[in-house]
């Protein structure tokens, strides 16, 4: 049934008379200005934030709600980029009910950048920036960011960039609209991060729709950075990328994976799956295959592969700096859209990519030099996915 609900996104978008309703966003019954009256939404310079209790960093364009003791980030667009610290979400008693909330505190921008520099200087000059995708709220994306930190043991600060996704299955078009609205916010933030001389390397991880923020933003920074070279954006990981495959191939050529960038150690790793039902729905909506799904748009190519006894899977064209990891055979979850956080085999590969390892013995070569398949590990115990991926199975986030 859940698979059909995902496919309903495509059906509703195409058939306005089908009786389906696609969720829309409205202003709400509260003035947006009232959400941010409390001074906690606009902290003064020098305000103390407990970095031990709130170890992770965030930047967000979401509208905050500072009316209650526990600050929340809403699905509405905010009036500016706000900065702060957070920890993994937890159950919090609000009134007589429990809510799953992310502990957080805002910081004045200058304080936030100083704290980020101090944490970066303590490490190796490495920063990991995570950009989420469709159908997320701040609690689910913070859960994923904290999982990435646990799973990879990353030796530097973790930053989450949170844009106003609605967190609802039938709000795909709203999410897409907000993502495009946020392009300028994110590219300016990424440029500011890349131009810090204390940032030696940015590991940039995007999931799903987040790829459509990340790829053009990197190209923008490459074109406009005041730094001599923005190749400190060196390790770009696109998990289940919901971006047009042909658009991606075209747009990475001029700047993102230009010969100069690749020579300075930049690379892109894309995790794809033919079993990804969310991207199948996205293809139905948009009419063209997504980078994260090796669907053969050309039926003649599919027939040619079948005649050779090969899987009918099509990938972006090879170019220096690009590696494609096909997780179809180790797909997990009802939609197969988050294998890098759910499948032990995919998680192990992701961990190594974050650590700048270029090869893994578990990767199976294909007829394409830049494409590798991941196969099930027969030695993996039944609970191997949760243990390897450091998940908290009692709290399930949407895929």
Provide an overview of this structure.
Residues 1-23 form the signal peptide. It is a single chain. The chain has 399 residues and is an alpha/beta fold. The chain has a single domain, classed as Alpha/Beta hydrolase fold, catalytic domain (Rossmann fold, 3-Layer(aba) Sandwich). It has 14 helices and 13 strands. It has helices at residues 2-14, 32-35, 109-122, 138-152, 172-181, 183-194, 211-224, 245-256, 259-263, 277-286, 299-307, 339-342, 344-354, 384-389, and strands at residues 56-65, 72-86, 90-94, 97-101, 104-107, 126-131, 158-162, 201-207, 233-239, 267-272, 322-326, 363-365, 371-374. The strands form two sheets. An eleven-stranded mixed beta sheet has the order 5-2-1-7-6-8-9-10-11-13-12, with helices on both faces. Strands 3-4 form a two-stranded antiparallel ribbon. Helix 1 packs parallel to helix 10 (277-286) and helix 6 (183-194) crosses helix 7. The two termini are 15 Å apart.
Descriptive keywords:
399 residues, Rossmann fold, 21% strand, globular, alpha/beta, eleven-stranded mixed sheet, 14 helices, two-stranded antiparallel sheet
Strand content: 15-25%
Number of strands: 13
Question: Can you identify the CATH superfamily?
Answer: Alpha/Beta hydrolase fold, catalytic domain
Inertia-based shape: globular
Helices and strands, in N-to-C order?
A: HHEEEEEHEHEHHEHEHHEHHEHHEEH
With strands numbered from the N-terminus, the spatial order across the biggest sheet is: 5-2-1-7-6-8-9-10-11-13-12
Per the CATH scheme, the topology name is Rossmann fold
If classified by CATH, what would the architecture be?
3-Layer(aba) Sandwich
Q: Give the N-terminus to C-terminus distance in angstroms.
A: 15 Å
- CATH domain class name: Alpha Beta
User: What is the helix content?
Assistant: 25-40%
InterPro entries: AB_hydrolase_fold, DUF900_hydrolase
Keywords: Signal
Protein name: Esterase/lipase superfamily enzyme
Pfam families: DUF900 (PF05990)
